[in-house]
Specification:
Number of helices: 6
Number of domains: 1
Number of strands: 8
Helix content: 10-25%
Structural class: alpha/beta
Strand content: 15-25%
Radius of gyration: 18 Å
């Protein structure tokens, strides 16, 4: 029955795990992402245009950010579009392999992640939180999200992009994916946001499966402004399809992720 609720999207697998289960998950995922790439140094960050179109462009009126937290942000590449607006950079990153001392000359302060989900920052101390494709790698999503809300200042902003599909059967090995990752059902995402009294500035469904396969000579889909527009169109066209776990081909014809701009 529990498995059925997980795959139906009624419950989020891992969100109600006990301490021992969470610690095991945390250990499995600590270097999970870094293991997918043999030479991370030569990997390009392929999501700048996507992040700008659905995220940073929505908050371009904000001139400066005193404190920014990049959750699971590795070397901080995701912050480059607004790097000149940031004073202090904090990054929570479990992997020692995916860290850097600075980005564009600005020092990075790394915070060690805790399996409990607690974030070592004061309440109402952060202006902006970015979380791009990270929450689906952790079990206790609801608690971690409550920590986001706790540390965010009044009028502060959260930018989140996460898969809202199951990503296959997580009980089995999946090519190109880490051992534990699974998407977050959209209805559960909305419930968590509401529970934490956050305002939805923007909710866009992104990364349609067909447009994800498109490439241009100068980069991947998510770094192409043209394809981002195409993806946006198909995301709206098939936004009605909220199937979480696909068992048929036509189940897969839907946007695979959601991009949120949230404000406290």
């Amino acid at each position: 029955m529990t498995e059925e609720k997980n795959f139906s999207g009624k419950e989020l697998y891992g969100d109600n795990f006990n301490k021992k289960q969470i610690e095991k998950w945390f250990k499995d995922e600590k270097e999970g992402y870094s293991r997918l790439f043999e030479n991370y140094e030569n990997q390009n960050y392929d999501y700048h245009e996507l992040n700008k179109f659905h995220g940073y462009n929505k908050i371009k009126h904000i001139k400066t950010f005193e404190n920014v937290l990049s959750f699971g942000g590795a070397k901080g590449d995701e912050l480059l579009p607004i790097i000149n607006k940031i004073k202090n950079i904090f990054i929570i990153e479990p992997s020692k392999k995916l860290r850097a001392k600075e980005i564009n000359g600005k020092p990075i302060k790394y915070l060690e992640p805790k399996s409990s989900g607690n974030i070592n920052l004061k309440s109402k101390s952060v202006d902006l939180i970015t979380c791009f494709g990270v929450l689906h790698h952790i079990p206790n999503v609801s608690f971690v999200f409550s920590e986001f809300a706790r540390i965010l200042k009044k009028e502060g902003v959260i930018l989140i992009r996460e898969p809202i599909v199951s990503m296959g059967d997580w009980a089995k090995p999946r090519k190109g994916l880490t051992k534990r990752e699974r998407g977050i059902p959209l209805n559960i995402f909305r419930r968590i946001i509401k529970k934490n009294d956050l305002k939805i500035i923007s909710e866009k469904k992104v990364l349609f499966p067909l447009t994800r396969k498109l490439k241009l000579s100068h980069g991947e889909i998510s770094n192409s402004g043209i394809i981002i527009w195409i993806d946006y169109f198909f995301g709206k066209l098939f936004s009605w399809n909220n199937k979480y776990h696909s068992t048929k081909f036509w189940h897969k014809i839907r946007p695979q992720s959601v991009f949120y701009v949230l404000q406290k």
